Amino acid sequence: MSVVRRDGTPRQSPGRALLLVAAGVALATGAGAAACRSQPAEDFGAPVVTASASAPTARVPIADGTIPAADGTAAPTRLRIPALDLDAVVDAVGIEPATGDFAVPPSVDRVGWYRYGPGFAAGAGSIVIAGHVDSAAEGDGAFFKLGSLDAGDTVTLTGPGGKAREFEVVARKRYQKTAIPLQEYFARDGAVRLTLITCGGPFDPETRHYRDNVVVTAALRR
């Protein structure tokens, strides 16, 4: 069964949303530490800063069962967020075949770009990057403080040849993982924006997982 829809968005697994992941549930292989199995704070990730407009998802025909990046092979390489003192390597990732989960990089100090969606040079759509909040073994993750970003904060994405695109935070929201609107955040049309995702909300000491996802949206600065 395919783990991605024909429109390029991830498919929700039975009984849970794909974005159990986006913040890094334990990797099936056990390679590296899990992002959501440690507890940095009682309630990580504050609710809404401000709302941003959503766009419907474009339909992309798939002939061979694979989904190319929306703008070819332009993969981002680094993500910088001065307000978080963050300068992280960006890995191109897809979906874990065994679980249907977003394949966040094992190392907590790296973040993962969803390579089946818009890439660095996208002229439209949502460039999705997910990262770990923390790890019981490795400590704070790249997105440990993502929930503290405010409207107006700068996010810089670097791509091939050192080219950079600058974005400005316009929204920060938190959803239960079973309620996150995937069509909005994985859309391949509408204004170019950067979507950053990690874990948040109350931490369950029994499951060793956070209940929610924190999602930050940043609009392209002209």
Automatic annotation (TrEMBL):
Keyword field: Hydrolase, Signal
Organism listed in the record: Actinoplanes italicus
Source taxon at top rank: Bacteria
Coiled-coil regions listed in the entry: none
This protein's name: Sortase family protein
GO molecular function: hydrolase activity
Signal peptide extent: 1-33
Record bears the keyword Signal: yes
